UniProtKB/TrEMBL annotation:
<dbReference type="InterPro" id="IPR036388">
    <property type="entry name" value="WH-like_DNA-bd_sf"/>
</dbReference>
<dbReference type="InterPro" id="IPR005119">
    <property type="entry name" value="LysR_subst-bd"/>
</dbReference>
<comment type="similarity">
    <text>Belongs to the LysR transcriptional regulatory family.</text>
</comment>
<dbReference type="InterPro" id="IPR000847">
    <property type="entry name" value="LysR_HTH_N"/>
</dbReference>
<keyword id="KW-0805">Transcription regulation</keyword>
<dbReference type="GO" id="GO:0003700">
    <property type="term" value="F:DNA-binding transcription factor activity"/>
</dbReference>
<protein>
    <submittedName>
        <fullName>DNA-binding transcriptional regulator, LysR family</fullName>
    </submittedName>
</protein>
<keyword id="KW-0238">DNA-binding</keyword>
<dbReference type="Pfam" id="PF03466">
    <property type="entry name" value="LysR_substrate"/>
</dbReference>
<dbReference type="InterPro" id="IPR058163">
    <property type="entry name" value="LysR-type_TF_proteobact-type"/>
</dbReference>
<keyword id="KW-0804">Transcription</keyword>
<dbReference type="GO" id="GO:0043565">
    <property type="term" value="F:sequence-specific DNA binding"/>
</dbReference>
<feature type="domain" description="HTH lysR-type">
    <location>
        <begin position="1"/>
        <end position="59"/>
    </location>
</feature>
<dbReference type="GO" id="GO:0006351">
    <property type="term" value="P:DNA-templated transcription"/>
</dbReference>
<dbReference type="InterPro" id="IPR036390">
    <property type="entry name" value="WH_DNA-bd_sf"/>
</dbReference>
<dbReference type="Pfam" id="PF00126">
    <property type="entry name" value="HTH_1"/>
</dbReference>
């Protein structure tokens, strides 16, 4: 019997306190269990178990060795699980969450690409502008914008986004361009009342300006549309207006006063032991989001 197997037998005896029960659980004969433990003790050169007619107890050396065995066996199981997970074919339903606009613009194309790559898979998306508890809501992968707390999840950073102030060229032609954050008090402001909403806009150097929006909406699309039409200014995450910037419909101002960028991460539980459907999607999402020029 090899060393790994004798360690497994010894650990099971230590856990059950019984040679007979260990034999039943491992589908071995009681004499084979006894021989395995005896061989291990002989190899180590120390007594690991104290046997009586009624009980089996660990010696001091046996207690230390059991803790080492348990750690080693767990590492072996994790390595095997990781190898199986990386080589297995993805199956089942993948659940992915992100904020609404980010999900529509950047996550949905990755999900559909993934489904094309693995046609036996199905997917469920939860695009909402609120924090999502991955475990409680049955989510496999989350793409999260913001600084992370210590959640115990595995995180892969894929880029960053900026809080920017923007308006249409036509608006600036009529009302002028703000050159300092304090100038915003003289401009019409449209805002979203969603997750990023705050009447206090922060800038580099801990500068803060309290704005008094004339137009408020529960969605990001409305203040962006108002800014695009030339009605006023709004503050958004820069990826949300990527196409408008490229085509000249919106222009960023006060960029020299911006706070540090906000990180974007792909989050998932279980780390290396994640099932194949999670590992393959994470690999794809990380690769595509890191290549996305609007996130860098």
């Amino acid at each position: 019997m090899d060393r790994w197997q004798t360690m497994r037998v010894f650990a099971k005896v230590a856990e059950t306190g019984s040679f007979a029960q260990t034999a039943r659980l491992l589908h071995m004969s009681p004499p084979a269990v006894t021989r395995a433990v005896a061989a291990l003790e002989e190899t180590i050169g120390a007594r690991l178990l104290i046997r009586t007619t009624r009980s089996v107890k660990l010696t001091e050396a046996g207690s230390r060795y059991y803790e080492d065995c348990r750690r080693i066996l767990a590492d072996i199981a994790e390595a095997e699980s990781a190898a199986a997970g990386s080589n297995a074919t993805p199956s089942g339903t993948l659940a992915v969450t992100a904020s609404v606009l980010f999900g529509k613009m950047h996550v949905l194309p990755i999900v559909t690409h993934y489904l094309d790559t693995y046609p036996t898979m199905s997917a469920r998306t939860l695009f909402v502008d609120r924090p999502v508890n991955i475990v409680e809501e049955g989510i496999d992968v989350a793409i999260r914008i913001g600084r992370l707390t210590d959640s115990g999840l595995t995180a892969a950073r894929v880029g960053s986004v900026r809080h920017v102030i923007c308006g249409a060229p036509a608006y600036f032609a009529r009302h002028g361009v703000p050159t300092t954050p304090a100038d915003l008090k003289r401009h019409r402001i449209a805002v979203s009342t969603g997750a990023w909403a705050s009447p206090e806009w922060r800038f580099a150097g801990n500068e803060r300006v309290v704005v008094h929006p004339t137009l408020q909406s529960n969605t990001n699309e409305v203040p962006i549309a108002a800014a695009r039409s030339g009605w006023g200014l709004t503050r958004v995450l820069h990826y949300q207006i990527g196409p408008d910037l490229l085509e000249g419909r919106l222009r960023i101002v006060l960029d020299e006063y911006e706070e540090a960028p906000i990180p974007v991460h792909v989050l998932y539980p279980e780390g290396r032991r994640a099932p194949a459907k999670v590992r393959t999607f994470v690999d794809l999402a990380v690769s595509q989001l890191r290549a996305n020029r609007t996130l860098n």
